[in-house]
Amino acid sequence: SQQGEEDPQALSIQEGENATMNCSYKTSINNLQWYRQNSGRGLVHLILIRSNEREKHSGRLRVTLDTSKKSSSLLITASRAADTASYFCASGGSNYKLTFGKGTLLTVNP
Amino acid sequence: SQTIHQWPATLVQPVGSPLSLECTVEGTSNPNLYWYRQAAGRGLQLLFYSVGIGQISSEVPQNLSASRPQDRQFILSSKKLLLSDSGFYLCAWWGQANEKLFFGSGTQLSVL
């Protein structure tokens, strides 16, 4: 069953602006991951944050995790048209399985 | 380096016909393998996963089955397709070292 829920479902911004996507999950996790999917393609891993971490950075990506609220956010700074894609959070337990949310469709207008 | 191959990229099949989608992984041994389905505009639903040859776990009851005849080969099958089987099917393997999934390029299945 799908645990994660991303918010918003769709987001449209101008190039150079920041994009923030949120994710909620339902059960205890070992880690939370974010993936990106270009239209009609497979998913690509972006970043992983462990349950004992609160914030993590990778290039223009910043991920936060609040285990008390069972929520995470992904911030993309200084967005580019090439960032246009769907973004999914995935919660990971101890059993090598990930549960994906429904995704946020990000459109970055040039 | 590890790579994952999934084919075909697109498939149009009539209702009631059989299905066989194949996925192979190179550059790693004894990977955990996964089949996900993605309905249009929706998230990913885990269908099957396998931790070894002949070991298949089904996540949801459905019209599909999976098999793992070789260590790095994962096959998704159906004897008779339903309209509701349409969707985007993704194969993936689990990278033990970095705890993340590596996905194939997907198969867009349309059942008409």
Structural class of chain B: mainly beta
User: pLDDT under 50 segments of chain B (min length 5)?
Assistant: none
Helical content of chain A, roughly? under 10%
Helicity range of chain B: under 10%
Structural class of chain A: mainly beta
How many DSSP-defined strands of chain A? 11
Q: β content of chain A, as a range? A: over 45%
**Could you name the ranges of chain A where pLDDT drops below 50 across 5 or more consecutive residues?**
none
Task: Give the overall form of chain B.
Answer: globular
Percentage of residues in DSSP E strands of chain B: over 45%
Q: How much is the average pLDDT of chain B?
A: 92
Q: Spell the H/E element sequence of chain A.
A: EEEEEEEEEEE
Using only C-alpha atoms, the radius of gyration of chain B works out to: 13 Å
Count of individual helical segments of chain B: 0
Secondary-structure element series of chain B: EEEEEEEEEEE
The largest β sheet of chain A comes out as: 6 strands, mixed
Largest sheet of chain B: 7 strands, mixed
Mean pLDDT across every amino acid position of chain A: 92
Largest interface summary = A-B, 23 and 25 residues
Ends distance of chain B: 38 Å
